[in-house]
Design goal:
globular; Rossmann fold
Length: about 210
């Protein structure tokens, strides 16, 4: 089995849903619906916003871990977990972008402050990006294959074909690009909606 890992707020869960569009992945354990329609309309449903985003993320997370594993964690824990898998895709995203993305869903940042949150993520990214670079050149003291990709590209208005191809080649899958684009656009739209929604609520409570 393969795995995806990312820092908190790093977009790893979203990358997993895009990967699951590949026809070889079967998700009947969570739905009998058409896979594309399910991800577009149920996973990324129109009611997703700041106060229920994480609830939606966790609704199917553990079940689909049996299909394509996903985990957050500190580097030492991730390395131990990664040894159980054939290939590990690390989704790197800057501490600043993770902070901006995650803050609207969980303002206490899992009981830490913003500086520690950002610093921890940047440290993890640095470790895995370097390990990925070395792994592409030679065996770096472990058996599993590791590839790091940059999620910061996914905040752009158009989906990057080069990044999707890297994922396809690494996992030996074929993500339907048109479907992935539509789902990714929905993800971007819902993120913007969540930002606007929480700003509106906070203004009503603390400003108006």
């Amino acid at each position: 089995m393969n795995a995806i890992m990312s820092p908190v707020g790093g977009g790893g869960n979203h990358i997993r849903w895009l990967c699951l569009l590949d026809q070889t992945f079967k998700i009947q354990s969570i739905t009998e619906k058409n896979k594309f329609d399910f991800i577009l309309n149920d996973v990324y449903n129109d009611n997703r916003t700041w106060h229920n985003w994480l609830e939606n993320e966790w609704k199917w997370r553990n079940t689909i871990n049996d299909i394509l594993f996903f985990e957050h964690g500190i580097p030492s824990v991730e390395i131990e977990i990664a040894k159980s898998f054939d290939k590990v895709l690390y989704v790197s995203s800057s501490g600043d972008n993770c902070y901006k993305h995650y803050l609207k869903f969980n303002s206490n940042l899992n009981t830490t402050n913003s500086l520690k949150f950002i610093k921890k993520i940047d440290k993890s990214n640095n470790i895995y990006n370097k390990q990925s670079e070395k792994k592409q050149k030679r065996n770096f003291g472990y058996d599993f294959n590791l590839l790091a990709i940059d999620f910061n590209h996914f905040y752009k208005n158009s989906l990057d074909t080069t990044i999707i191809e890297k994922i396809n080649n690494f996992f030996s899958i074929q993500i339907p690009f048109d479907q992935a684009t539509e789902i990714h656009n929905k993800w971007l739209l819902l993120n913007k909606k969540a930002e606007k929604d929480i700003i509106s609520v906070l203004k009503k409570i603390y400003v108006d």
